[in-house]
Amino acid sequence: MPDLSQTSPAAFNCQGGLILNRSTFMMQPGEALELENFEPDIQGGYRRINGFSKYVNAVVPQTASSSEPVLMVATFGDKVLAARGTSIFSADPAGSSWTSIDSGRTSAGTYAFERYNFDGNDKIIFVDGANAPTFFNTSLSATDVSNSDVVGSKFVAAFKSHMFYAGKSSAPQTLVFSQPFDEDAFSSGSGAGSIKVDDTITGLKVFRENLFIFCENRIFKLSGSTLSDFAISAVTRDIGCINGNTIQEFAGDLIFLGPDGLRTVAGTARIGDVELGTISTPVQSVFNTNIANSSGFRSLVIPNKTQYRVFFTKSGVAQAITEGVLTSLRGQSFEFANLKGIRPTSTDTVTTATETIVIHGGDGGYVYRQETGSDFDGTAIGGKYRSPDLSFGDPGVRKH
After folding, report:
1. Phi/psi class of residue 372: alpha, beta or left (left: φ > 0; alpha: ψ in -120 to 50)?
2. What share of the chain is helix, strand, coil (3-state, %, to 5)?
3. Rounded to a whole number, what is the distance in angstroms from the first to the last CA of the chain?
4. Gyration radius (Cα) of the chain, Å
5. pLDDT mean over 347-369
6. DSSP 8-state assignment for residue 5
7. CA–CA separation, 157 vs 168, rounded Å?
8. pLDDT tens digits, one per residue of 291-309
9. Which candidate, 54, 57, 11, 16, places its Cα nearest to that of 35?
10. Which of 321, 327, 334 is nearest to 309 (CA)?
11. In the sheet where 87-91 sits, what is the strand order?
12. Which pTM was predicted?
């Protein structure tokens, strides 16, 4: 029996997140050797993540086979929009049916979209890498962008009242922009034009007063307001973004997946000064494994938790063992955890005056809302937490 008179209690805070790059003897109490489906809580400690449930009770209609994934989900006004197969559909949240609002889309890939307002009317525009860009007003009337130069665009962004298109397979280094306040007008005499960079574009994102152009091996930023003063400059010519679906605005920065893990593009207090930093060093081994083996990537942010999530999709891997990583900004530090059991095929986050809505599409054709309930649409959430070994000051002395 241990001598209870010699008992020395110890207390520590659960903080620091998942640490995989240090020996257990070098770790601090409260950090985690295993942290699966738990999240570093911005109020302190770790808590099991919330679940997800069906956002619309009906499956998105299939157009060819039940194996078609949901290629796009988006919240627009009081509707939820989804793309599957050759069509785009709309539904009411918690509704029991979908309505086709656009059809005849062939060979569509992963969608990108942008919500914007050029003329006092809210609109949303979609690109899918194969068809003409299509935009909708609040009545969900579809209009195709007619210019052949932007048909097949993979990326779209509204910047300084111009609509920018990029990613066309026949012109992967070219950025085409419309004339001001009109996503479907391309007269050079009225302010439209194009810009070419010296690398293949993998994503676009507006951040503060610049449009960031992510490429395979480089990152550029576009400044200015009109055709006459648009200027492009290199942020870095050494690091690129491997997948545009991972680019998100997060905690006042842009975060993206580079070849060596998660990175940020952080604007500092000095005008024009940009800092590139790798933030995923504590869990680098997770990214080294999954970047090489994943066939697709999806990401989302949960602003009210200052949290970013990236998911790794692998062919032939069931949802129950699909992996991901979340990171929360707690204080001045990024803290990480593993995710398992969530397999999004598309994602969207929108913040209204009253709530944050986080949704994702799935392989089975349903649209789900995250951060609801305590299970994964009826499946229990498995969670793990393991602290480092506690040496109590001397790892060489055996303790009870």
Report:
1. beta
2. 10, 45, 50
3. 9
4. 23
5. 94
6. G
7. 14
8. 988 888 999 999 999 999 9
9. 16
10. 327
11. 70-76, 79-84, 87-91, 99-102
12. 0.92
